C-alpha cells in the first residue's frame, strides 16, 4: 500500500460556514491546495456539511501542524489516499477535534 495523497474534510454546521470558508482560503493560500465544493448537507460518508482540501504527501506534515492551531474549533477529518476507499476512511485517518460517525455503507 502506498499513500499517494491526502484529503482533509472540514466539517461545519450552517453557522460555521464562514469559518470553514476562511479556513479553506487560508489553506489554499498557504499550501496551494485545491479546495472543493462547500456541501451544506451530508454527502458521501460525511455526516454534515463539509469541504475537501487535497494535499500532496510532502505537504501533509506541515498542514497538520498548521491545522491544529488554524482550525478555530472546526472538526477536520483527514485521510490517506491509497486506492482502498474503505481503508482510507477507517484505517488511514486523523481527526482534528472530536471524531464523528461516518456512513461507511457507501463503500459496499
From TrEMBL:
<keyword id="KW-0223">Dioxygenase</keyword>
<keyword id="KW-0560">Oxidoreductase</keyword>
<dbReference type="GO" id="GO:0051213">
    <property type="term" value="F:dioxygenase activity"/>
</dbReference>
<protein>
    <submittedName>
        <fullName>4,5-dioxygenase</fullName>
    </submittedName>
</protein>
<dbReference type="Pfam" id="PF08883">
    <property type="entry name" value="DOPA_dioxygen"/>
</dbReference>
<dbReference type="InterPro" id="IPR014980">
    <property type="entry name" value="DOPA_dioxygen"/>
</dbReference>
<dbReference type="InterPro" id="IPR023389">
    <property type="entry name" value="DOPA-like_sf"/>
</dbReference>
Amino acid at each position: 500500500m502506498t499513500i499517494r495523497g491526502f484529503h482533509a474534510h472540514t466539517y461545519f454546521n450552517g453557522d460555521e460556514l464562514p469559518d470553514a470558508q476562511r479556513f479553506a482560503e487560508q489553506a489554499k493560500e498557504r499550501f496551494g491546495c485545491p479546495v472543493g465544493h462547500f456541501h451544506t448537507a451530508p454527502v458521501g460518508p460525511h455526516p454534515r456539511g463539509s469541504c475537501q482540501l487535497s494535499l500532496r504527501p510532502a505537504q501533509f506534515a506541515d498542514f497538520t501542524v498548521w491545522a491544529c492551531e488554524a482550525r478555530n474549533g472546526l472538526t477536520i477529518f483527514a485521510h490517506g489516499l491509497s486506492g482502498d476507499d474503505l481503508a482510507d476512511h477507517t484505517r488511514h485517518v486523523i481527526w482534528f477535534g472530536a471524531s464523528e460517525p461516518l456512513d461507511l455503507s457507501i463503500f459496499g
